[in-house]
Amino acid sequence: TIYAESTMMNPDIESTIKCVCGVYREHIVQAASKRSSNSPVQVAFHGSNSDIFIDFPSPGTEIPSLETIIAFYQDFYVRSQMEHDTIIMSLIYIERLIKETSISPVPENWQS
Asked: Fewer CB within 10 A of the end CB, N or C, for the chain?
């Protein structure tokens, strides 16, 4: 006989959250590595360039650890009384949001 510890009827919620948070953290790492650390974003405005967005990371802002993201997600999961299937659905939502809008989570906004 085969014994499975985790099934859809009895999911391993902690492992699922850890995997989802690992993927989410990778999005944060990739977005942070793509950002320019030497120049502000230039935006053309009525024929001139204006520095209206500063793309510098805030002082002291670091990429959150996997443990920090897991703790945040677990707290959110418990407080919002989510069902276990919404863990995976939240990852699908984030993936679609990134794909459709080209907006990625960064160290400054990953909890939003």
From this structure: N
